[in-house]
Write a structure and sequence with these properties.
124 residues; mainly beta; four-stranded antiparallel β-sheet; 11 strands
Length: 124
């Protein structure tokens, strides 16, 4: 599968952005999909994930209540809706796909396929 992340940009603190992760070559229903982010000088960290069916989602504590992950399998796309953005949310956001079961989705090592990343910048 190939993943294309998009939707990043510059937004003021308190604003919203919606990121998209579009899959090609294979149905996204074959994969659990996660979102990760990496700020300059920091390690890549887990943000959110969706199981294959979308019936189970996981969200990092740091973004809980502000970020929501969802998927539209008909469009072969997974979304990350980000509300109430803070300057500390500034990072490159990556989507990734993991086959098999919905275990360990908070770990980057669980994922076999990665998109190219999209930059989110939140100004104060």
């Amino acid at each position: 599968v190939q993943l294309q992340a998009s939707g990043g940009g510059l937004v003021q603190a308190g604003g919203s952005l919606s990121l998209s992760c579009a899959a090609s070559r294979h149905p996204i229903t074959n994969y659990n999909v996660g979102w990760f982010r990496q700020a300059p000088g920091k390690e890549r960290g887990f943000v959110a994930a969706s199981s294959k069916s979308g019936s189970t989602t996981y969200v990092a504590d740091s973004v809980k209540g502000r970020f929501t992950v969802s998927r539209d399998n008909a469009k072969n796309t997974v979304y990350l809706q980000m509300n109430s953005l803070k300057p500390e949310d500034t990072a490159v956001y990556y989507c990734a796909a993991a086959p098999d079961g919905s275990w360990g989705l908070v770990s980057p090592g669980r994922y076999d396929y990665w998109g190219q990343g999209t930059l989110v910048t939140v100004s104060s």
